[in-house]
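R.M. (postdoc): so does anyone remember the format we settled on? I'll just put the structure tokens first.
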């Protein structure tokens, strides 16, 4: 296996690349065309880790990612949150007044409507954010800009014409760092916090009130479930799989009891990873209760 390499989906300068730089600054990055290619890079040994976005605070979960994770054969070993700061990137010497069109992924175009309307800039759909920055650099037209990360501007030699132009100033993407091997050994995060996260997927048995009964053990054992989502399996309406995040480690007595009760009411249960909670979780909780 290739050591010290982390794979991500997108062109250099993508927000996934930014996440790699922040959470694994000493590792070499491997850009990949699709999420499947990113996962395969780790499975085939061309990378040690994969950086995968799973959800955004504005737009919800990343399409298809919950289908890919259980089938990947990889294990979650860390999570990280990246603040999505959007910049208007133009060719050297260009000014905002020169720009008539801005290219980016549709998600980013939708996050900058106020700025675009204020400056009379038309949005153009690009394949992805960093790829749009690359295209702007190639065309070298002052009237064409890109909406992307400042890192993309740095990589492709573009000027930051405006920064922080997103409509929502708390826009954040959650990433999962995945490996071929699980790591259940840690009981505290790097900052000294004691919160561990466990992520798993399950399917309930075909009995009345199965989901209600399956989740009852988490309530009675005082386990905080931070995420529960359902999605169809193989396009069949009656085949539903659930994806869940809880606070705690499977070896904690209360978590072990809750998982045992869950197992009684499910036909399948798979733990995808056990990892330290990112400190941002605690900060957000403090902010919500202040």
């Amino acid at each position: 296996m290739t050591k010290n390499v982390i794979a991500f989906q997108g062109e250099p300068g993508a927000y996934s690349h930014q996440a790699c730089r922040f959470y694994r600054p000493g590792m070499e990055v491997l850009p990949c065309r699709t999420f499947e290619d990113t996962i395969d890079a780790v499975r085939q040994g061309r990378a040690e880790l994969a950086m995968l976005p799973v959800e955004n605070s504005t737009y919800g979960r990343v399409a298809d990612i919950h289908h890919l994770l259980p089938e990947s054969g990889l294990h979650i070993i860390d999570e990280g949150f990246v603040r999505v700061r959007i910049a208007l990137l133009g060719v050297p010497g260009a000014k905002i007044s020169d720009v008539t069109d801005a290219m980016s992924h549709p998600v980013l175009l939708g996050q900058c409507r106020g700025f675009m309307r204020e400056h009379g800039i038309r949005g153009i759909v690009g394949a992805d954010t960093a790829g749009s920055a690359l295209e702007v650099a190639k065309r070298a037209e002052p009237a064409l800009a890109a909406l992307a990360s400042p890192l993309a501007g740095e990589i492709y030699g573009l000027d930051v014409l405006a920064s922080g132009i997103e409509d929502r100033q708390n826009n954040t993407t959650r990433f999962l760092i995945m490996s071929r091997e699980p790591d259940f050994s840690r009981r505290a995060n790097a900052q000294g916090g004691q919160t561990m996260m466990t992520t798993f997927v399950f399917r309930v048995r075909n009995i009345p009130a199965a989901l209600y009964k399956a989740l009852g053990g988490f309530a009675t054992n005082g386990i905080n479930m931070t995420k529960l989502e359902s999605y169809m399996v193989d396009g069949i309406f009656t085949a539903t799989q659930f994806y869940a995040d809880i606070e705690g480690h499977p070896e904690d007595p209360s978590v072990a009891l809750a998982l045992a009760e869950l197992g009684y009411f499910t036909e399948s249960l798979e733990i995808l990873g056990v990892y330290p909670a990112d400190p941002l979780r605690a900060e957000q909780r403090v902010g919500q209760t202040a």
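R.M.: ...and that's the designed sequence above, right after the tokens. Also worth knowing: Residues 253-264 form the longest helix (12 residues). Residues 81 and 174 are 5 Å apart (CA to CA).
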